[in-house]
């Protein structure tokens, strides 16, 4: 009887070891950690925006619409509760990434508009904030890339036939991936117009 139990235990361990269970669990933890870093960088950016807005408000006659768009975009982006579990809800994930994309666009328009204001361009505090924001945007890009890689590996692992049992045992399902906001726009070639020579 003991021999039979030992053989059954060995068989179960062999099946579980070869079914991908451990790999799936490990990769899911990597996805969660990668997503947490993305959220951390988005929060860092959100924390910078009030300082940027206050600095820009000090410039007389600054375009209020541009400033208001940044304030509203930040409010939308921070109104979505961003948790590590967001990666398990594709609809909430899409909503969150769309709001972050709108904030990125609003900030880009703000920084382009600033070029028309020499006092702001010369303002040391604003330039330091701008440099910090640019560094944060780079960190967001790196964190998103790590998340994209982790999700690609995880989604591939759970799709493999040899990991079918592990997928069932863990209840694994594909994680959402970042997507381009306007795929149609990037598929069209840019229009280049150098003007006509006189």
Provide structural commentary.
By secondary structure, this protein is mostly helical. It has one domain: de novo design (two linked rop proteins). 75% of the residues lie in helices and 0% in strands. The protein is rod-shaped and about 90 Å long. The protein starts with a helix and ends in an 11-residue tail after the last helix.
Give the arrangement of secondary structure elements.
Elements: H1 2-18, H2 21-57, H3 64-79, H4 90-114, H5 118-122, H6 124-159, H7 164-170, H8 183-187
Helix pairs in contact: 2-3, 2-6, 2-7, 3-4
Structural descriptors:
198 residues, mainly alpha, de novo design (two linked rop proteins)
The percent range for strand residues is: under 5%
Counted by DSSP, the helix tally is: 8
Q: Outline, from the CA principal axes?
A: rod-shaped
The CATH level-2 architecture is identified as Up-down Bundle
Number of domains: 1
CATH topology: de novo design (two linked rop proteins)
- Residue stretches low in confidence (pLDDT < 50, at least 5 long) are 182-187, 189-198
Task: Give the ordered list of helices and strands.
Answer: HHHHHHHH
Helicity level: over 70%
Tally of strands: 0
Largest sheet geometry: none
Estimated structural class? mainly alpha
Mean pLDDT: 85
Fourth-tier CATH superfamily name: LemA-like domain
End-to-end CA span: 99 Å
- Top-tier CATH class: Mainly Alpha
